[in-house]
Inverse folding.
């Protein structure tokens, strides 16, 4: 899609980067303080404030929860000035609240914006996921294949031995069998405690050493990760996992009818997509917020599917107090 035909222009992409910058700077005040709730609230407040000055007719389709659970940035909330293009907003004001509270790597403020009606309205349930970076033929890996088949297929496509493949998996008891199966192929496993959006995006960057992401994580985070891969390149599949009738009812309310459906990347994020993320703590993809005399530095990633542009914006802010 060209710049002329895209409904989301370059300036809007940069505005979305400014939104995640503000959220990251405000939440960074809580790094290492052991207070997840305050860190998250600081990010939510800042992100909402900045979204509401942008000329878009935006609707939060993935947010902090339903209206009765989240007073701000709830699913269905209208954001922006009401002028400009209709835009779906998927966001995680602080991806990695625990990482922030414990001053651990890979905490980020994350947002995706897409043409109205093109992002999957994923409920707050789990999602089985598999993802790889770009440069491979379609269908190299598959959510329904065994871990061994996926590792071996990826190794063959990459021209290496399975022992040279590294899988990123969330460190959870539910993944014990998956981890064992991957290691039995000879492949390495990199375990992460939180932040599976970063884990998925890491497959696109050779410097991370991650070749494939596997396992079950949050469904909203799955859509955000798919939006990122739409911009930077890669493959991803996901399937919703519901554990109760209440979860199924919520999913049905959001338009989900087939709970066995395997979603590909372009079904989770089908339209013109902008993805923005700013580091809160240092990580694989982004530097965190760093305080210097007289201000702070930020590192923001801004990507667009329409042009395939990937921007790394490193900025110095002389008056961070103005972000509050």
């Amino acid at each position: 899609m060209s710049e002329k035909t895209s409904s989301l222009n370059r300036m809007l992409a940069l505005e979305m980067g400014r939104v995640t910058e503000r959220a990251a700077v405000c939440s960074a005040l809580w790094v290492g303080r052991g207070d997840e709730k305050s860190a998250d609230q600081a990010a939510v407040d800042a992100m909402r404030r900045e979204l509401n000055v942008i000329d878009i007719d935006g609707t939060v389709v993935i947010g902090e929860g339903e209206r009765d659970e989240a007073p701000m940035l709830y699913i269905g909330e209208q954001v922006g000035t009401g002028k400009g293009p209709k835009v779906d907003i998927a966001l995680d004001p602080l991806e990695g609240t625990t990482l922030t509270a414990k001053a651990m790597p890979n905490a980020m403020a994350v947002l995706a914006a897409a043409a109205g009606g093109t992002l999957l309205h994923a409920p707050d349930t789990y999602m089985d996921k598999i993802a790889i970076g770009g440069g491979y033929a379609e269908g190299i890996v598959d959510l329904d294949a065994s871990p061994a088949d996926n590792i071996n297929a990826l190794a063959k496509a990459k021209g290496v031995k399975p022992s040279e493949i590294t899988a990123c998996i969330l460190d959870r008891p539910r993944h014990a069998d998956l981890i064992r199966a991957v290691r039995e192929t000879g492949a390495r496993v990199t375990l992460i405690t939180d932040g599976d959006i970063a884990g998925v995006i890491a497959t696109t960057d050779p410097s991370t050493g991650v070749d494939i992401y596997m396992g079950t994580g949050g469904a909203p985070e799955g859509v955000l990760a798919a939006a990122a891969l739409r911009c930077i390149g890669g493959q991803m599949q996901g399937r919703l996992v519901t554990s109760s009738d209440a979860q199924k009812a919520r999913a049905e309310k959001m338009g989900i009818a087939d709970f066995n459906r395997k979603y590909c990347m372009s079904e989770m994020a089908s339209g013109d997509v902008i993805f923005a993320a700013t580091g809160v703590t240092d990580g694989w993809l982004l530097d965190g917020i760093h305080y210097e005399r007289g201000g702070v530095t930020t590192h923001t990633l801004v990507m667009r599917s329409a042009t395939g542009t990937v921007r790394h914006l490193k900025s110095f802010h002389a008056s961070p107090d103005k972000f509050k």
Observations:
- Residues 1-5 have pLDDT under 50 and may be disordered.
